[in-house]
């Protein structure tokens, strides 16, 4: 019987070896390991054996079964792997074909600029304030030290609705309103971005509607050097560490002293070129120490409190930073323009 | 203000600096230099030549053969200019000279005759064509007689000058004069300058015998001085003076007018000369004009006046609009012999009013409007007399005849070193501040650490401590201020909830495939009323209009963002950009007043407009055009983001497709609408199918509640069931879904439509809607039987309410 089992084992293993597919293996399993298979038959004939032989043969028969089963198992795994391999090979694709498009939009360049500046000042402890675009003459002018008949009103010809109402010509009224809401002793630390309007004919450098962003800090003992420090931090963040700033005296009715800030020209690095009109500097914003009249009108005692304010034009910053050459681009919403700056 | 560098050098020594360095210093200390430009391209070797003889060229009709004395020698020069003549003094480029354009002059032969140089026109010397006087446009320039042969012609013509253009802020009108600029430069470079004393020899005859002055409105005209000058010879002003006027952008006319303009530039004080004989009377009366009074001004324009304007009259009729322009009647002419020279102070406001009303902005009005130096008014008159004596042969009569109520006092301002340093963040010493004040030529008295300063009247802009703070800071140098950060109490900066929500909405829209746009708030009137959401329409009387719009395009404030958004789509489609998905979050302006008196309500709205293919450039799949459901999906996504549920009610709205438009509600509040733009309007904008939405962003922010408590993830499984219902085709899917939700409560947590079918196997007029229902009890596992019972109840309810049959 020993020989018979050995022979069956050889036969079976050979058939496993020869099997070409899963069905072939299944046939081998049924043929040799099934209930009617030869091994079962051998085991059935064990009754005829002596008491001593029985366990030996039984053990051997089981070993043979196991070896055949294992061989089938191994072969089956291999065949399945091969089949899968083949199938996957057939499923191969051209990975250079395009992906299915996902529709993704993006922000307007001005929004990106404004939000970048907002985040920068939030980091320095500033709040964001907003105010109405249709303003009263009082907040737009008078509260900012621009009484009726003041020559500086010429500087910003305005869109009036009535004698007392107009489209704001700057975001400064938000400063006056915010200060007015405090009780004359609270700290004001804010920036206010927003749309402003002036009587300008739209061309490459003028727009009757544009964006402004202003900042204000009122506290005890605010120094002009603080303005310089804060603006310097802003300029380095916005334009890069390698840019220098310079302040120049200027004039605004609501600040005294007043300054204009230039940053060193990126194109020539300060040597002078056509972009900076040979000066090495590019004007970027205006500001100064809050005028005592403005403080007084808002209920702050200018002997005790001082402050600084500054204002800039995000369009101008965008134009300088990205080389946009026509301000109208910001408002015609050409899809090719909008999409260029989604990463901005 | 255009500043001739050569002229400035008359007043102050700037030889230590190049023009560019000087410009940089002036800019940094207070006045922005906008440009530094040479008058002309450099030329060398050009001298004055005396034309000793001038004959016809033997071989050429149009050429002349000249013998020209250039000082050290006489040169034979062939000249083609038609105006060349014997006895003239002309500009000669001698051999070796270099003219603009690097044009080198050599000895040559012209038509057989030696020509050893070139007689030059102004254009050839680099003068801009439009600045060449009419009489020299077609030929060579001829010098006046008082120049010497051999003198440097370039310097005589002031062509070696550089012009510094100052960009003056409105407060620095003191620098609207050469004297003012000289004071400023002296302070900037620590140099020295004072305005020289005038030197007039008056005759024995008294001006008061010729004229009297009578001022009616002393507030508008606190000083009026009249000088009388006889024996005037009107002729061209000296060349140097004409050059300086030209450099400053003023056209030379004759010696009298040029002298008044020259003093205007030098002192910043406008003057006016009347022809005494043409003035008509011996009395000057300055008064408010009568309403309807008419004057013909120097530019031959007839101007109608009102009480808002001040006029200079002869007691009968107006001869000048004060501070703005003289009258034609008493204009100085070639035969004028006697002058009344006016030196006056006119109040800024009245001059501004006249200048504005008549659209006349002159060198004169600009200065009066900003306030002239009260201490320089009379002096300027004297200076003009001095020049008239010298360059117009004038005899100045004794004493100015004047009306004088002018305040010439100096303002007193006190500053303290400690406060200066506290405000600037600096550590400037007491001595240094004193030094700065001396550089500015402000007189002061020291008292401990205080400086009591008398501010010169030329600096009318300085009134209080902060103004002096600026003076000290700018001379000390803004560059020298340290960089510090605010030392006060710190607050946590940040965005308000609404600001955060606005950013959240933007991020959502962009993630959902829309591009942000910014359009104009001012639009044309028809557009301001168009595509207005019904809840806005109910509140608004009519769009808010501008009192004086610049154009019809931008005359009214928008009530809806959509028309300008459609305009943006239209702009792109016209440029072959057909697939567009735009949104904007911006303000609309709602006023309930028919005639606006108070500020309109400003409401933030979120609007979108989409047209063309939804997914641009798809491949291996059908093109997907934007349709109602694409846009609705975007709006629904927003509602999910904000956790505010929207309902949609089919509505007919003006300018919208009547069958594809819905009002959107959040809770029981209308918050906007969605739908297809009416095909007629689409056509007007040149658009194909276009869908829009318009939402009240502010109301959504109002309804938004920040999730406070964590909601447990359900621990028990849910059961999903589908049903397909056959209903009449006009039954709204939303209504059925609502019935299902109500009937299935509380177990049904979600109802979704997943299919709509019409056609084969269905009766005409019927449609099949398939719903997916989600059953869930968060506290336990549902039993089949419970679900079955709820399901049957639902089926019964939809049958009762919508005659819906289960599709077999």
TrEMBL record, chain A:
Keywords: Aminoacyl-tRNA synthetase, ATP-binding, Cytoplasm, Ligase, Magnesium, Metal-binding, Nucleotide-binding, Protein biosynthesis. It comes from Halobacillus locisalis. GO terms for cellular component: cytoplasm. SUPFAM superfamilies: Class II aaRS and biotin synthetases (SSF55681), tRNA-binding arm (SSF46589). PANTHER family: PHENYLALANINE--TRNA LIGASE, MITOCHONDRIAL, PHENYLALANYL-TRNA SYNTHETASE. This is Phenylalanine--tRNA ligase alpha subunit. Transmembrane segments: none annotated. Mg(2+) binds at residue 256. Binds 2 magnesium ions per tetramer. Residues 109-320 form the Aminoacyl-transfer RNA synthetases class-II family profile domain. The keyword Cytoplasm applies. Tetramer of two alpha and two beta subunits. PROSITE patterns: AA_TRNA_LIGASE_II. InterPro entries: aa-tRNA-synth_II (IPR006195), aa-tRNA-synth_II/BPL/LPL (IPR045864), Phe-tRNA-synth_IIc_asu (IPR004529), Phe-tRNA_ligase_II_N (IPR004188), Phe_tRNA_ligase_alpha1_bac (IPR022911), Phenylalanyl-tRNA_Synthase (IPR002319), tRNA-bd_arm (IPR010978). Its EC number is 6.1.1.20. Belongs to the class-II aminoacyl-tRNA synthetase family. Phe-tRNA synthetase alpha subunit type 1 subfamily. Its cofactor is Mg(2+). The keyword Nucleus does not apply. One of its GO terms (biological process) is phenylalanyl-tRNA aminoacylation. It is found in: Cytoplasm. CDD domains: PheRS_alpha_core. One of its GO terms (molecular function) is magnesium ion binding. It catalyses: tRNA(Phe) + L-phenylalanine + ATP = L-phenylalanyl-tRNA(Phe) + AMP + diphosphate + H(+). It is an enzyme of class 6 (ligase).
From TrEMBL, chain B:
Residues 408-483 form the B5 domain. InterPro entries: aa-tRNA-synth_II/BPL/LPL, B3/B4_tRNA-bd, DNA-bd_dom_put_sf, Fdx_antiC-bd, Fdx_antiC-bd_sf, NA-bd_OB-fold, Phe-tRNA-ligase_IIc_bsu, Phe-tRNA-ligase_IIc_bsu_bact. One of its GO terms (cellular component) is phenylalanine-tRNA ligase complex. Its main location: cytoplasm. GO terms for biological process: phenylalanyl-tRNA aminoacylation. Mg(2+) binds at residues 461, 467, 470-471. CDD domains: PheRS_beta_core, tRNA_bind_bactPheRS. Its cofactor is Mg(2+). Residues 714-807 form the FDX-ACB domain. Pfam families: B3_4, B5, FDX-ACB, tRNA_bind, tRNA_synthFbeta. Residues 40-154 form the TRNA-binding domain. The keyword Nucleotide-binding applies. Belongs to the phenylalanyl-tRNA synthetase beta subunit family. Type 1 subfamily. Tetramer of two alpha and two beta subunits. This is Phenylalanine--tRNA ligase beta subunit. It comes from Halobacillus locisalis.
